[in-house]
User: What shape does this take?
Amino acid sequence: MAKNLRHLCKALKKQLKEAFDLAKDMSFRVYNLLCQFASKLADLISSFYEYICDKVKRFYKWITGIVQKFKAKFCHAD
Assistant: This one.
């Protein structure tokens, strides 16, 4: 019985080591996936920010053009 118990303990130790190694591998893969996700999310946020900045600049130019037209119109009216 002691032999069987020792054999079972060795088998359990081996399985625990394998499980731990798999967990480390899975943890590393999850970490890599999270890093990739964070990188892509940062790129997406950066692109969105640039898009919004471009739209704001265009809107500002459009409004500035309209204001200048009105100023020119009223200045010539005097």
About this structure: The two ends are 113 Å apart (CA to CA). The longest helix spans residues 2-77. The helical segments are 2-77. Residues 30 and 71 are 60 Å apart (CA to CA).
